[in-house]
Design brief:
Shape: globular
CATH superfamily of the largest domain: P-loop containing nucleotide triphosphate hydrolases
Largest sheet: 7 strands, mixed
Distance between the termini: 23 Å
Number of strands: 11
CATH topology of the largest domain: Rossmann fold
Radius of gyration: 19 Å
Number of domains: 2
Order of helices and strands: EHEEEHEEHEHHHEHEHEEH
Number of helices: 9
Strand content: 15-25%
Strand order of the largest sheet: 1-11-10-4-9-8-7
CATH architecture of the largest domain: 3-Layer(aba) Sandwich
């Protein structure tokens, strides 16, 4: 059935453009442009992501997945092309705190409690975290990620999975519009990773945020995503976009469906062909 898996790379329709909250248009990224050996990481990337959609980026190592994520998040600038978030430049969206970035490492402050780490973005924004409303907001997010009872614990007292939950809560607490996630579960063992996939899936169903998610783990991409974008080897180009037509809400039973296996096999085969 793999030939029946819907995929496309054609230009978006006017309706798709109007529904997009993230729009990437003809983006190139060249590192060391003035050097003798510039590296073209991305070439002519076009991608439109709808509100509340979960989109994963996959592809061979070095294809520019993280580079694209950083361009969308305004951490680095594209060499050419345009990126807009909700109709405005990515820089404006970042300054308005519309974007939360989740890294491979949890980057928690070891001297702060769970509560203190989660409150950090609010403090950076100048919010009074002693205000009862702010504390209630923080507490709700901690409970959303399943860490109630650990508010006063330090990071060194937590497991790897629990630390990642703190990192998720820290990104959720100021209610951004866009989640940009760069392999947030890559350092976890397989069992813990699956549990974190379950949590992220549950949270996504609950709060429905637009998410762009980088991963090398293809089953993870299939299970979480509405669409999967495949990037080609460097310079990264959008090779294919696959619609994941698995019903939501999803659960562990979804992994045992024939369609899930077919998506996984198709995406694995496609990425492996790049590396032959």
């Amino acid at each position: 059935m793999t030939s029946d898996i819907p995929s496309k790379v054609e230009e978006p329709t006017e309706q798709e453009l109007s529904e997009s909250i993230i729009s990437v248009s003809h983006v190139d990224k060249v590192y060391g442009q003035e050097s003798r050996d510039p590296i073209r990481a991305l070439e002519d990337i076009n991608l439109n992501i709808r509100k509340n959609e979960f989109v994963s980026l996959i592809g061979p190592s070095g294809c520019g997945k993280t580079t694209l994520l950083k361009c969308v998040g305004d951490i680095i600038e594209p060499t050419t092309g345009k990126i807009s978030i909700d109709g405005q430049p990515a820089t404006t969206a970042r300054h308005q705190n519309l974007i939360a970035f989740f890294f491979q490492e949890d980057v928690l402050l070891p001297w702060r409690s769970v509560m203190g780490n989660v409150q950090l973005p609010l403090e950076i924004q100048g919010k009074n975290t002693d205000d009862p409303a702010m504390r209630e907001q923080t507490q709700e997010v901690i409970e959303t990620v399943g860490l109630q009872g650990f508010e006063n614990s330090r990071p060194q007292e937590l497991s790897g999975g629990m630390r990642q939950r703190v990192a998720l809560a820290r990104g959720f607490v100021y209610n951004p519009t866009i989640f940009l996630m760069d392999e947030p579960f890559a350092a976890l063992d397989e069992l813990t990773r699956r549990k974190m996939n379950q949590e992220l899936l549950r949270i996504h169903e609950e709060i429905r945020k637009t998410t762009l998610f980088v991963t090398h783990h293809i089953p993870e991409a299939v299970w979480l995503s509405d669409r999967v974008v495949i990037l080609s080897p460097r310079p990264g180009k959008v090779s294919e976009i696959v619609d994941i037509e698995l019903e939501r809400p999803r659960n562990e039973e979804t992994r045992h469906q024939e369609a899930f296996t077919e998506y996984e096999e198709y995406l694995t085969k496609t990425v492996m062909e790049f590396e032959e």
